[in-house]
Amino acid sequence: MGPNSKALKQKLSQDTEREFGGTLGAVCIPFFLPLTVLFLICVSRSPEASVLQWPPQLPSTDQLWDPLAPVILLGWIGLHTLLYFMPFGKVSEGLTLRDGTRLQYPINGFHSLCASSVLLVLLLGLGVPIGYLFELLLPLAASAIAASFLLSIYLYVRSFWAPYHALALGGNTGNPLYDFFIGRELNPRIGNFDLKYMCELRPGLIGWVVINLGMLMKEVELRGSPSLAMILVNSFQLLYVADALWNEEAVLSTMDIVHDGFGFMLVFGDLAWVPFTYSLQAAFLVGHPQALTLLKAAAIVALNGIGYYIFRKSNSQKNQFRRDPTHPSVAGLETIATAMGKRLLVSGWWGFVRHPNYLGDLLMALAWSLPCGFSHILPYFYIVYFTVLLIHREARDERQCRAKYGQAWDTYCRRVPYRIFPYIY
Question: Signal peptide location in the record (predicted)?
C-alpha cells in the first residue's frame, strides 16, 4: 500500500460525521422501515384504512408468503438487468472520481420503460390477470425486503475487496452496523454492470408504475371501469417516472450517485420503499373508491401541471448550466464565483429558492393525494414523508455545499434566503 492509499485510508477512517442518527439509526431504521411498508399495505387494504389504529395492524406470517411472489420479483429484476445491456441510447460519463477516472453509464432507462410497457400490453392481451398484483402486494413486499437485506449483505462483504479510493467518504467509519446501513463502496460494479445505478431508476421505479396498473386493473375487475381518481393517480405518477427516465443522465450528478455509498439505505429505498409506499394512493383507491367531479379533477390536474413545470424547468436549467454555462438559455443568468472555479446560480429558478425542484416535487406530491379525498390520512402519507425527506436532504446538501464552497456559499445564502418554500422556509 502506497503513501497516498494510507493517507486516504486515514481520511476515510477519521470521517466521523454520521447521517440518519448514526449507530442508533443504523440499528432502528432497517428494523422499523420494513415493518412500516408492511403496515401501510395492510392499512390500505383494510376497510377502516386507519393509521392510528392500536395495536397497529400487521400481517400474519401466512399473508407474507406466496411462491409466485419471489418468482415475479426475481424475474422482474432479471428482466431489467438484461434491459440494462440493451444496445440502445447513448453512453455517458459520470463525474470525476477521487482516482481521476470517470465511469461510463448506459442511458437507456426510458427504453427499459418502453420495453416494460410493451411486455405489459402483451400480457394484458394474453389475458394475464394483472389485477392479481393487489392480492400479491404483501408477499411481493416481503420478497423485496428479503432481497434488500441479501443484496446489502453481499455489498457489505464485497466492499472489503474494493480499493480505498472506491469507498464512499461517509461509509468507512469502522462501525459495521453503520457502514452496512449507509454503504461502504461508492460504485459497486460487476464488470461494467453498475449495481447502484441499475437499482436507482429501473426495477423499483418502473415497478411502481406496474403496481399502479395492477391496482387500476383490480378496480376494473371490481367495478367494471377505472375511476377518474385512479386514472389521475396513474397518469400523474407515470408522467413522473417517464420524466425521470427520459432525463436519466441527470441522475449521474445527484447525491445518491456522487456521494452516498450503496448500502441498505439505498438498496431498500430502491427495491422496497419506492414501489410499495409510493403506490399507496392507487392501493387505497381499490378498496376506498372516491367520487371526483370534473371541476375538482381539473383543479388537481392544474396543480400537478404547475408542480411539474417548476420541477422540470428548474432541473433543466441546473443541468444545462452544469453541462454548458455558455449556452444561450443560461448564459445571461447571474452567478457567484467560488474558490474551486465553479459558479453558483443566483438568478433564474435558482435565485427564487435554493431548491425550486423540491418545491415542484412537493406540489406534485399533493396533487397525487388529493384524488383520494380527505376522509383518510393514509393517502397523504407520501407527501408528509416526502416533505421530511426533502428537508433532511436539503440540510445534508447545505452542510456539504458550505464545506465545499465556503464563503461563496454564505454569499449565495444571503442572496437566496429561502430554502424550499418562498417566504416560509
Answer: none
What SS3 class is residue 55?
coil
Strand partners, 194: 189
Q: Summarize the chain as % helix, strand, coil (round to 5).
A: 70, 5, 30
pTM: 0.88
CB 418 within 8 A of CB 354: yes
Chain segment 134-169, per-residue pLDDT in tens: 999 999 999 999 999 999 999 999 999 999 888 988
Determine the Cα angle at 299 with ends 297 and 301, to 5°: 70
Integer CA distances (angstroms), 315 to 310, 348, 404, in order: 8, 11, 21
CA dist., res. 274 & res. 268, Å (int): 9
Q: Structurally, how many domains does the chain consist of?
A: 2
At 291, the amino acid letter reads A
User: Which domain covers residue 44, as residue numbers?
Assistant: 1-290
Same domain, 307 and 284: no
Cell of 36: 412500516
| Positive or negative: CA dihedral 180, 181, 185, 190 | positive
